[in-house]
Model the fold of this input.
Amino acid sequence: MLAAALALLPAGSRAGLAAERIQVVCTLPHLASLVRELGGDRVQVRALAAATLNPHYVVPTPGLMAAVAEADLFVEIGAGLELWSERVLQGARNPRVRPGQPGYVAAYQGVPMEQVPAVLSRAYGDLHPLGNPHIWLDPLNVKVMAANIATGLERVDPEGGALYQANLQRLQRRLDEAYFGAELIQLLGIELLERLRRSGRLFEFLEQRQFRGAPLAQRAGGWLGRMWPYRRSRFVAYHRQWVYFARAFDLEEFGQLEPKPGIPPTPGHLEQLEAAAKAAGVRVVLCAPYHDFGQAEAFARRIGARAVRAPTEPGIEGIEDYFGLMDELTRRYAAAAQAAD
Amino acid sequence: MRTTTRRTACVLGAALACLGSAVTSPPAAGQSEAERGTAERALREELEQLRRRTDERIGELERELEAMRAERERAAAAEELERLRAAAEEQAREPAPPPEAAQPGLFGRVQQVLNALNPRITVFGDAAAPLELSGHETELDDRFSVREVELDFRAAVDPYASGVLILAAEEEEPGEYHLDVEEAYLTLDTLPWRLHAQIGRFLPAIGFVNRLHTHDLPWTIRPLPNQDFIGGEEGWRENGVRLSWLAPALGPLTVELSGWVLNGENPVVLAGAASDDPAWMGRVEATLEFGPGHFLSAGSNLLFGYNDEDARRKSRLLTGDAIYKYQPNQWFSTVLFGEAYYLEKEVAGGTEYGFGAWVGAQLQPALGRLWAPLQHTYLGVRYDFSNYDEQTEDAEQWALAGYLSWYTTEFLRFRIGYEHRERESTGGLGRPDEQRVMLQVTLVFGSHPVEPFWFNR
Done:
């Protein structure tokens, strides 16, 4: 077993090459991407879950525990997404990164949560008591998450505080520009745009208003500009995980293949959904890489829509970071919605 | 500005008129030809300069006009932008639309604070209907039975420790339940140097099956060696202390070392309730991870203690266990696992030796690809061997078991299992072969703690 272990040992992981750097362990790849943006060369970061895995169900192996045992900072979404992380943290025996310690960050804190259940019962499937935890598919939420992570980095590495804060500003600016586009930001200012978006009035405002004789919406760039033609388009998802994405681009999640969150699709439910989705003109079926794409594709065919294999994390299919993830997601959605027209 | 321009144009016109008349008027008397030529050139030059100055001035005036137009444009744009921003402010101030409700009336923010500090509670229920096909029939055979109900409480005690309490009510005779403390322990979670401590009553990690409660087993009943060497169908519970250390990872290889000091109350190997002397146990467990959901884990225990009140007769139990799991996705998985036990037990007049082992395989055959509700369907087989039974001298027995489990969700499982058991005894106390079919339903409600990595669902 030892020989096999040595054979599998990646060259870069030997001999503590990054002993001087702040060791950060994140549950998910997109969190690791944000840490890299914030920490640069000052941090060494690792994601525990692969991009192809369902973030709800990761096997908490000793290897994950050993990684966390070395960490100065542990970052997770929290909000009940990574239930397995509790066992990893317990097995890691690293008091510095336990919840409540300076080395622990729950990135969801401060993010306005959607779909917070008023009734907690397994009769409704796998509910998340704190709300839907797939928060990172809205770039505005990621600004909050990045701020939480920067604060955590500063807590465990006060000397790097100025760098983390400067990188945070830069990252938030990049996120704003990538989401709204530079022209819209120049016109309305990011603070106002963000408030409009959060209040749910942005799309209506851009649609109804003109500036210098042209529709204001024409000023939208970035991901918003790309998705603008498909606003209010209806989609069906395999799992209830796109609520924040829908909010970010004014899409309508019409239903899910799963009859209840976490419950595999049943023929009866699919039949009902099929009739309703056809009548409603659903154009896109979104399916994360860890769900059954074949089933999503078959359903899409039946209702005359397009199925999209929608990545939810960087680290697969050439997607390198969070920006790449949102680029790819919006590109795939737009292509599918256009093709279904 | 417009007046100035007009005035400039008038002056310019007058100047040009004068100049024109000067150039075209007849030459004065007495002027020589050369003088007239010079005067004409001078006039032409003057005219040229005047024309240039005029052009320049016109250019200036046009630029001024353009700037005025742009300024006016900017002012209008700024005004429009101001109005736009004011309108945006107004919109942003209006209350947000209600949050999305995927099921009418289901979602909305409710703070549940009253019970917030209570422990997380999980209830496990395990109902079975064992059908005895041949062999020895127990009182619980051929009837429906809620064989166990378990209450699991767990919470952080303070920033340094967590507590777990598991109470179980088991049906021992038809309709009669016995309440027992299955586990009640404290864990010290913030020890330095990668240490972790467990203090109280727990299921010691001898192999991996003993760590599982009955409702968590991948089979309906425990393998023979587990029953014969460490006792009981409910697993071996002990009071004591465990200290474990997680070694730094060597690439994909992790090693955990554990040591126990126990009361020594195991009724098979140790002195049972009469024990006055502690038992000691050590375990090494190594896990090699090939990738997500793909690993090989192997472990070994050595248990040492006394099997009599006077601490004169020693027992030594050496075990080995391994599990290989490959789960590339949520539809398909395969598990190979097994445990082996070797016992040396000093008894009156000599030493007893015993050996037992079981091996098993489990397959999740990706039926969910064909029909999604079958996603969590598992098939398994297991073979057991044991030549030690403290009640039957020189007994040798083996068993073959098969099972089919289907989970609607992780909270509800239906299972049908079959077991064939044969026993040979040179002491003449052998029991007839047994064949049993077991129907089982297991449910979980409440918070449901996360399973360990080697859990075989």
User: Anything to note?
Assistant: The longest helix of chain B spans residues 33-93. The mean pLDDT of chain B is 85. Residues 1-20+43-63 of chain B form one domain.
